[in-house]
Amino acid sequence: MSKSVIFKRQSLRAGAISWQLAQTFWVGGLWLLHFVMLPALEKLGLAPLLIEEIGGLLGPLLIGFAAFCALLQAVVLVQAEGLRSLWQDMRGQLLLVVVVMALVFFAVSHWQPDAARWLLFNYMVVALCGLVLVLQPLPGQRGE
User: Fold this and answer.
1) Per-residue b/e over 48-80, b at no fewer than 16 CB within 10 Å?
2) Is residue 2 part of a domain?
3) pLDDT at 5
4) 7 in any annotated domain
5) Is residue 6 included in any domain, yes or no?
6) Which residues of the chain have pLDDT under 50?
7) Are residues 99 and 71 in contact, defined by beta-carbon separation less than 8 angstroms?
8) pLDDT, tens digit, for every residue of 55-80?
9) Count of domains in the chain?
């Protein structure tokens, strides 16, 4: 086996590991905050204003982290499958939606900070895209 084939195989393995790690952190973080942490804080009896403040601080942080991880995953996808995969592959399309929705989230929160429903909608779209992305095969693997 030639050195270039071995290097390519190791590169794909490293890309798949970084893909899974980034995906675990951002998708898990989004779902954990909204469906575990905030309801648990509510059950503990914390003041609703405090829970809203915690969600208001952690939500944008997780959206920004999701955008960064989606960009990292897009780089891995392009390295494994080529530039056309961003447009033609469902994984690439989902990653692009995540990045665009994150940008929209920050634009809306900057210009319309009282648009809580729209911000929640953006958050949920990013979280659902992440959930669908989890079900897709890793870059470099066949089975699509």
Assistant:
1) eeebeeebeebbbebbebbbebbebbbebbbbb
2) no
3) 56
4) no
5) no
6) 144
7) yes
8) 999 999 999 999 999 999 999 999 98
9) 1
d(CA 10, CA 74): 18
Residue 140 resides in a domain: no
Q: Is the dihedral of CA 3, 84, 97, 143 positive or negative?
A: negative
How would you class 133 by CB atoms within 10 Å of its CB: exposed for 0-12, middle for 13-18, buried for 19 or more?
buried
Task: Give the pair of three-digit tokens for residue 20.
Answer: 């899974």
The DSSP result for 80-131, as a single string, is HH-TTHHHHSHHHHHHHHHHHHHHHHHHHHHH-TT-HHHHHHHHHHHHHHHH
Domain that includes residue 45, residue range: 12-134
> What residue has token string 């954990």?
32
**DSSP letter for each residue of 26-73:** HHHHHHHIIIIIHHHHHHTT--HHHHHHHHHHHHHHHHHHHHHHHHHH
Give the pLDDT confidence score for residue 15 in this predicted structure: 82
* Residues 74, 80, 82, 88, CA torsion sign: negative
Contact 136, 23 (CB under 8 A): no
